Amino acid sequence: MKRFILVMAVLMAAAGGATAETHPDISLRCVTGMATTSFLLRTQGTDVVLTTVHHNGTGYMPIHEGIVVPNDMGFLSDKAKVLMQMGDRNEFRFPRARCKIFGPGLLTCSGGERKRFGDLEMEALSFVTGKVTQRDSGQSTDFVRVALSVNVIGHPPVMDIAMYYTESECRFQF
Asked: Which H or E run contains 8?
């Protein structure tokens, strides 16, 4: 019986470590060839710092992904006005302990800081990277999806700034 419990304890410990890795040094750089919006992530002490840069100004920042219908235009205009207050370059910190790596290029950070941009208060809810494959006409292209989700106090719902990059446009070190 003792041997069974010991074997189960070892297996449970091994299985727990296989799900997600936490607390590593993290470095990420996603930049398009013709610089549009870049995401830069680096470890700094007990934090992971996310810098978002809109190289052509906030008028070109990504504010939506997915299908848009004419009735969405008012909401999208309001959302743009809110998110544009973040400026061309902004930073959010996430606790390093709240970042998990799920595999090559697969990262999630949660529980980011709250900060002010003008009269708006924003909370960084999460930063996520993922892999997406698009298949059409017999061809397949792999993309890296990078998204920052923010809660803008007094402006529901949660707002995302998401970009898709080719795999060659993103460099991961974690």
From this structure: helix 2-19
Secondary structure element (H or E) that encloses residue 25, with its range: none
35 confidence band (pLDDT: 50, 70, 90) = confident
The SS3 call for residue 163 is strand
Higher pLDDT, 90 or 21: 90
Long-range (24+ apart) CB contacts under 8 A made by 160-165 are 160/65, 161/37, 161/52, 161/61, 161/62, 161/63, 161/83, 162/62, 162/65, 163/30, 163/32, 163/36, 163/37, 163/39, 163/62, 164/65, 164/132, 165/30, 165/31, 165/32
Question: Residue 90: inside a domain, yes or no?
Answer: yes
The predicted structure's pLDDT at residue 16: 41
Within-domain flag for 13: no
Task: Give strand pairing partners of 135.
Answer: 140
Which phi and psi (to 5°) does residue 131 adopt?
A: -115, 135
Domain interval for residue 45? 22-173
Tally of domains in the chain: 1
**The two structure tokens encoding residue 51:** 């810098």
Hey, what are 174's tokens? 């974690």
